[in-house]
Amino acid sequence: MSADRGEDTSEERGASKGVTTVRVVGTGLIGSSIGLALSGKGIRVLLSDPSPTAQALARDLGAGAIDDGEEPDVVFVAAPPDVAAPVVADELGRWPRAVVADVASVKQRIADDVRELVGSEHLRRYVGSHPMAGRERSGAVAAQVDLFEGRTWVVCPQPESEAGAVAVIQDLAARTGAAVVTMPADEHDAAVAVVSHLPQVAASLVAAQLREVPDDAIALAGPGIRDVTRIAASDPMLWTQILAGNAAAVAPVLRRVADQLVAVVESIDALAVADPPAGGSRGAVAHLIADGQLGHARIPGKHGAAPATYATVIVPIPDEPGAFARLFNDVGDAGINLEDLRMEHGVGAPVGLVELSVLPGVVDRLRDVLEHKGWSVHE
Ligand SMILES: NC(=O)c1ccc[n+]([C@@H]2O[C@H](COP(=O)([O-])OP(=O)(O)OC[C@H]3O[C@@H](n4cnc5c(N)ncnc54)[C@H](O)[C@@H]3O)[C@@H](O)[C@H]2O)c1
Ligand SMILES: O=C(O)C(=O)C[C@]1(C(=O)O)C=C[C@@H](O)C=C1
């Protein structure tokens, strides 16, 4: 088996060359995005979902064909985490030659449940995996062909997983454009507790504070609150399952944050009085922000590359058809690669603010080109 950690290389690819048919079970956001990505690579994708509407919608959006009972080479189970294990077990039983993978956000508990359901010997063809890509929206309608492009896709082999089965899933994940990382399931769960599950809890807590805020205060919302709360729009049912499935790893992370939050409150309390005593409270607050800077600087860039600091320019665009296309054409004509893009809608104004991120070396040229084309450009 290939439980070695590390990034897949192109030399290792090719393991899925013999794969012609992939069955996707659960045709929501992730299942349909897999279907779109693999269909685009010439693979025959068969779609199955207990909801006939979800299944038909995925088909209509181009994610594949409705499953007709044809034997698949590979099955991706993209069902909710609380049913992933029994669905994997069913698929292993139904297709005795297929490699069966799941894509659920937690890995160890699902693998343990599958082992209990089918027995260790049948785990040879099972490979746990988790694309670190997603959206705060659910269902096929939110699926995207390039959802996995440049994102990490974690493959978590079990001790029983056959090397060939692991290689097939690594290879298919790579064919969606993802950067494949292989690691044990328990390490995956500890990692996502910090990099995925904590952010969801934090975003939901911050956004929940806005429920009672008067309209006049909400109207002041700028990019800060939007950045911190985007994922607060996520599906409560899915996230209850994810947090329950990884509770043992998430609880200590939340406890550490809670302890640090209590210390921050004490420092801020000390500073709230008219003439704060010199007791180190300012230092504690400064450390909080500085530590955050250090953590933020460690977040990898595209394709898992070293953290990249991009330069940004902000361009107001009119809220009218074709404005976006014109802006992109002007950037493209200048041969400048956009590294990232964000859009803010001005409150009460018929303009949007587009933030373009580029490598620092080309930002001056971008500014010149856009000004020359008549755009007004802000830092
Ligand atoms: N949403 C994300 O950002 C994200 C990212 C990576 C991985 N995941 C994982 O992918 C899986 C699917 O999440 P999603 O966001 O696509 O959810 P979704 O709600 O968009 O889709 C889930 C689909 O599964 C179907 N389903 C329900 N019960 C089923 C069953 N018993 N058998 C087969 N299908 C069933 C539903 O009808 C629905 O179409 C989850 O396990 C989730 O943890 C989600
Ligand atoms: O971008 C988002 O909407 C996500 O939150 C995606 C995200 C994450 O990055 O934490 C959330 C949960 C999934 O298991 C994988 C990816």
TrEMBL record:
Gene3D superfamilies: 6-phosphogluconate dehydrogenase C-terminal like domain, NAD(P)-binding Rossmann-like Domain. Its EC number is 1.3.1.12. The keyword Oxidoreductase applies. Pathway: Amino-acid biosynthesis; L-tyrosine biosynthesis; (4-hydroxyphenyl)pyruvate from prephenate (NAD(+) route): step 1/1. It catalyses: prephenate + NAD(+) = 3-(4-hydroxyphenyl)pyruvate + CO2 + NADH. Residues 20-307 form the Prephenate/arogenate dehydrogenase domain. The keyword Transferase does not apply. Keywords: Amino-acid biosynthesis, Aromatic amino acid biosynthesis, NAD, Oxidoreductase, Tyrosine biosynthesis. It holds the Pfam family PDH_N. One of its GO terms (molecular function) is NAD+ binding. Residues 312-379 form the ACT domain. GO terms for biological process: tyrosine biosynthetic process. Belongs to the prephenate/arogenate dehydrogenase family. This is Prephenate dehydrogenase.
